C-alpha cells in the first residue's frame, strides 16, 4: 500500500487522470489495471517504471515504433485449463495462440532494438517464450477456428467419408427431384430446406405418390415437404459419421489441452506482461497528448517545476482553444514553505493542486507536463487539506473537520512530507483561527516538511515574511480590470482587493466607504501599500518583458548582421587576394616581356641571362623580407634568442618608465579626491537636495530635516536615515 492516502488522491483529482489514461488502453483488462494504479512506495520501484513509460513515449519520436500488442482476455481459458479433464474449444485455442504470437513479436522486436529501448528490453528478458505452445496449436487448429483434418488419421478418414456421403445425398436428391418433377407432382418452387435438409415441395394432392418422409407443409396446406427415401438413408449415415467426427474432435482437443495445460504459468505470465505493456502504452499516449516529459528525480530534497501545467485544465482549455498559463515554483532548503495570498478566483487553489497532482502523478509512474529541465524529489507522504469538507453524516462543521485533519497532519508530518493546504486557518474566528494557524505553520516548519498553503489571513503573511525559509507569494491581478493573470509571483504577499472586487461586482460605492470606515486604518493602509507595490511590480514586469523581447530582436538582428558582415569580409579578402595575385602575375608578365623585347632588339644572350638572374634575385630578396626563413642551425637559433632578449629588455625598461608616470597621476588624483571629499563633508544638506545613501544606487529627494535625521522621498515610498550616511548627488536649485 502507498503512504499517500485515498483522500489525498481524491482532493487532487488523481482518479480523473487515471480515467483519462485508461481511455488510451487497447484492452478492457488494461483499462481495469490502469484504474488500479497508485503511487509507488519507494523511489527504487518508481524509477524503473518511469523509464519504461519514457522509453515507450520516445517511440513516437523515432521510426522504430513498438509492434501492435492488442491481446484477448484468456482468463476463462486459463481457469478451464486448471480444471482436470476439461478442454478448450478451437476459438479459445486461437486466443491463446494470438496472445503467444503477440508476445513473441514484442520480444523479438525489443531484442533487435535493445540499444534504443534498454529498460523495456530488460523487462522483457524476464518473460520465457515457449515456442511449443504456438507450434502445437498451429498443427491442430486452423485460422478459421476449426480442428485441422490432418490432426489425426481417423479424423481425416471420417471427413473423407462425410464428403462422399454428402455427394451421394446431393446426387440422390437431384435424381428424385428430376423424377417427380417430370411426373408433375412438384409445385413450381420444386424444393425447399427444413432443418438444414433439402426437401421436395410436393403438391398436397400427390403426397401419397412420392416415397419419403413427410417433414412439414405450407401455411395454406397446398404444399407438403417430403425428404426422398434414398436421401433419408444417406442422411442417417451422415449423422452417424458426424457423431464419430465430433467424438474424434473432442479427443484431439483434450489431448491438445493436456499439452498446453503444462504451460499455464507461462500463459499467466504472457497475460500479465501484455496487460502491463498496455498500461505503459496508455501512460505514454496520455503523455504525448500533454507533451509531458520525465523530469530529473534528485537525491537532494528540492522541487523545481518549471512551466508546470495542470493536466486536466490543459486538456479542457485545448478543446476550447483557450490558453493555459504555466506556473514555475521551487521548494528547497532555503524556501521550505510558500504562503500564497491574493483575491479569490485568482488561481491560488489551481496552483496548489497543480503542484500536488503533478507530484502524485510522477510518483505513480505517469509523465508530467513540465519543462524538461525541471526536477523533483520522491516524498514519502503527500498530505492535503483542500476544499470545504463539511461532514453531515458525522455532524462535523468545516472547522471541526479541518482541525481533525490538522491533527492527522501533525501526527504524520516529517522531513519527507509534502503538504498542501487550501484556505489555511479558515472556518473559525479570524483572530483565534489565525493564531492557531500560526502555531500549525511553525510546527510544520520545525518538522522540516515542505509545503504550499493559500490564505487570506494577514497574520500568516506577516509570519511568513518573518520566518526563515518561508516565502510569501501571490497570484498576479490586473489592477485596472481586476482580471486575474493566473501568474504566480514569489517574494511578496498579495492584496485581497476586497473593496475593489466588491466595487467591480456592482456594490454601491457609499456602502463600500462605510465598510472601509469600520475596518482598522492600519489594515487598510497595509492592504493599500501591498496593492500599490503589486501595481508597481506589474508595470516593471511588463516593461522588463517588453525590453527582453526588444533585446532578443536586437540580438537576432545583430547576429544576422554580423554573419552577413563576416561573409562580405570573407568575400572582400578573397577578392583582394585574387586581385593581388593577378597584379603580381601582370607585373611578372610585364618584366619578362620587357626583358624579351630587349633581347629581340640586341640579340645578346649574355645580357639576357644577366638581366633575368638579376630580376629573380631581387624578387627572392623581397620574398625573404616578407616571409623570413625559420632558423635551422644552432647558430641561427642562438642569434634569434639574443635578438628576442634585447626586445624584452627594452619592453621592461619602457614599462618602468610608464609606472613612474602612473604613480605621479595617482597621487594627483588622490589629492583631488580628498579635496572633493572635504568639500562634501563640509556641505550642509538642504530640503530638495538630490541625495543617495552611501553604497546605494537609488537616488531620492530630501523632504525634511530633523536634527541629524533626514526623510528621503523616492517617489514610491519615503525612508528615514541619518545625515552622516548620505552623499550629495545634486544640490537643489534656489
Rg to the nearest angstrom? Answer: 47 Å
- Say which CATH homologous superfamily of the largest domain is assigned: P-loop containing nucleotide triphosphate hydrolases
Helix content: 55-70%
The largest sheet, given as strand count, sense and whether it forms a barrel, is: 6 strands, mixed
Number of domains: 6
In whole angstroms, the N-to-C terminal distance is 80 Å
Number of strands: 19
Estimate the mean pLDDT confidence. Answer: 83
Assigned CATH class of the largest domain: Alpha Beta
Secondary structure tally, helices: 21
Secondary-structure class: alpha/beta
Instruction: Could you tell me the CATH topology label of the largest domain.
Output: Rossmann fold
Q: What overall form do the CA principal axes indicate?
A: flat
Topology:
Layout: H1 6-11, H2 14-22, H3 28-35, H4 43-58, H5 75-81, H6 90-112, H7 118-124, H8 131-140, H9 153-182, E1 186-194, E2 197-203, E3 212-217, E4 223-228, H10 229-261, H11 264-290, E5 296-297, E6 303-308, H12 311-319, E7 327-331, E8 337-341, H13 348-362, E9 375-376, E10 381-385, H14 398-412, E11 417-421, H15 430-446, E12 450-454, H16 458-466, E13 470-477, E14 484-490, H17 498-504, H18 509-518, H19 521-602, H20 605-626, H21 634-681, E15 690-693, E16 700-706, E17 709-713, E18 718-722, E19 726-730
Parallel strand pairs: 5-9, 8-12, 8-13, 10-11, 11-12
Antiparallel strand pairs: 1-2, 2-4, 3-4, 6-7, 13-14, 15-16, 15-19, 16-17, 17-18
Helix pairs in contact: 2-3, 3-11, 4-7, 4-11, 6-7, 6-8, 6-11, 8-10, 9-10, 19-20
